[in-house]
Design goal:
By secondary structure, the protein is an alpha+beta fold. 62% of the residues lie in helices and 12% in strands. It contains 7 helices and 4 strands. The chain has a 4-stranded antiparallel beta sheet with strand order 1-4-3-2, sandwiched between helices. The longest helix is centred in the first third of the chain and has 61 residues. It starts with a helix and ends with a helix.
Length: 287
């Protein structure tokens, strides 16, 4: 009896664990993805703050020095990128780029997929943020992107070569990074992180959750087995043994047990009444 009950419980628990695993996996994956993108958003906000600080605080201090040599530290794009390179040491999974369609510095030029994101912002100027995944030879990548718009501070270097600092022209030339228009979307801030990072975080939590649930289910099986043995199986076996003795005419057999659950107690009481009735009937027949 216990074997059959345990088999039924095992099948039920296996199906339950499979369903729970699917739900937990999906939920944790979504939560992990949101967490990774939220972290990317904080990093992007930090980069934007660095750009603003560089434009308003650092740039004016370096204006005089730009006459003799170009100081990239005065460029908000450069400051944000360098700041993130430092941050990258603590968060190696995350990468940051200010991808631009027509940059002054070649390292900022948008790749094909980055250019697609920039074009998406240009086609819909109301879009302020996009996120998604893309496949790479190294696996799936999560990305978060925000548009880069031309402001007044950008036009001093990127409107026309004739108004750009001579030292900048000497360093980067006159062919790239010009012709920007006010409020034009020229690029995108993009933070990327391997999808495996989100999966790894979700995987650890999933293992902990499923291990806890499995331990609880094992505990339930043990409690059910002990309860069934004490309240049902042991009393039934004893009742069956005594009933077998009574059926063979053993008048010295002990009374049916009164322990176990209420149903077992009621069954024992019924057997005891039946036994007394049989004893009376046998005595009457014998008399």
């Amino acid at each position: 009896m216990l074997l059959r009950i345990n088999l039924i419980l095992l099948v039920a628990f296996a199906l339950g664990m499979a369903a729970i695993s699917l739900v937990v996996t999906s939920t944790l994956q979504e939560n992990a993805t949101r967490e990774v993108l939220a972290q990317a958003g904080l990093m992007m906000d930090s980069a934007a703050a660095i750009r603003s600080y560089t434009d308003t605080e650092i740039g004016p201090l370096l204006d005089d020095k730009m006459v003799t040599a170009f100081r990239p530290q005065s460029v908000p794009f450069y400051a944000a990128t360098q700041n993130f390179l430092t941050l990258h040491k603590e968060h190696p999974d995350y990468s940051y780029k200010e991808a631009t369609l027509n940059p002054t510095n070649p390292r900022d030029r948008a790749t094909d997929w980055e250019a697609d994101i920039v074009q998406r912002f240009r086609n819909d100027s109301a879009t302020t943020q996009v996120s998604g995944t893309r496949d790479t030879p190294m696996g799936a990548i999560l990305y978060l992107a925000r548009p880069i718009r031309v402001d007044a501070g950008c036009l001093g270097c990127h409107s026309l070569p004739s108004v750009a600092p001579a030292t900048m022209l000497a360093r980067y030339g006159r062919d790239n990074g010009f012709g920007w228009q006010p409020n034009e979307i020229v690029g995108a801030q993009i933070v990327s992180v391997p999808f495996a990072s989100a999966e790894s975080s979700a995987g650890r939590v999933r293992r902990d959750v499923l291990t806890t649930i499995a331990a609880v289910l094992v505990g339930i099986v043990l409690v059910v087995n002990v309860s069934l043995y004490v309240l049902v199986i042991r009393p039934v076996r004893r009742i069956a043994r005594i009933a077998d003795q009574v059926s063979l005419g053993d008048t010295a057999a002990e009374e049916f047990p009164r322990g176990g659950g209420s149903e077992m107690a009621a069954l024992s009481a019924a057997f005891n009444r039946m036994r007394k009735s049989l004893d009376k009937a046998l005595r009457m027949l014998g008399g």
